[in-house]
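Weekly puzzle thread! Below is a chain. First person to post its structure in token form gets bragging rights.
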Amino acid sequence: MKIEALSIPRIGEVIDLMGTGAPFVAPRTWSDYWAYATLFSATCPLAIIDE
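Winning reply:
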């Protein structure tokens, strides 16, 4: 497992993952994740398992 900050290339993967939580969890918009990756990436860690 590798921990890395949220980055723009990973946004699609995060949206796909969050979509699996329906109906209790819904993904935010692509632009929301872009803001997180651009402005707040240090506080948005991702756990990457087997790439």
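Puzzle host: Confirmed. Bonus trivia for everyone else. The beta strands are 2-5, 45-48.
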